[in-house]
Amino acid sequence: xxxxxxxxxxxxxxxxxxxxxxxxxxxxxxxxxxxxxxxxxxxxxxxxxxxxxxxxxxxxxxxxxxxxxxxxxxxxxxxxxxxxxxxxxxxxxxxxxxx
Length: 99
Known about the structure:
This protein is mainly beta. It has one helix at 50-59; strands at residues 12-26, 31-48, 69-79, 84-98.
């Protein structure tokens, strides 16, 4: 199998986590609940050439993300014997809601 020379599609979902914090907020006269949700999604593309992984990481595209989300990219060696690289994209977002 030949190594991919560009990334295609959404990659492989490696992990997804949601951390929900609920805490009371007081203004002195009223009290309400604040709900802070932090979501992290990690996606991976494997069997890439070094050039493809590096170019994708350098592009660091933020397109297609929801408001409040950011994406970070890391290109790294995957398998030294066959010379493959992988690209890891981590999408992080935080939302606040009040009740």
